[in-house]
Specification:
Layout lengths: L5 E6 L2 E9 L5 E4 L4 E4 L5 H30 L1
Antiparallel strand pairs: 1-2, 2-3, 3-4
Length: 75
């Protein structure tokens, strides 16, 4: 099965929150309520330095994904 790069999620324990989950490395989720980011897997120090620039790009892609999904939902 091929997984999508991003998915939207919600949780009944957090009814006001919407999450974007990135399913490729580095796996993380963004809580759109407060824009917090939580990594799902352990990131070592060396990878963390290399990922700083890439994370900015991934966050931009996550925002574009969300915008596209909301456009589709509104149709």
């Amino acid at each position: 099965m091929e997984l999508p790069k991003f998915v939207l999620a919600d949780n009944s324990d957090f009814p006001d929150d919407i999450f974007i989950i990135h399913l490729e490395y580095p796996r993380f989720l963004i809580n759109l309520k407060d824009d917090s980011i939580e990594f799902i897997e352990e990131i070592d120090d060396e990878d963390e330095r290399e990922l700083e620039a890439e994370m900015e790009h991934l966050i931009t892609l996550a925002g574009e994904f969300y915008d596209r999904e909301m456009e589709r939902y509104e149709e």
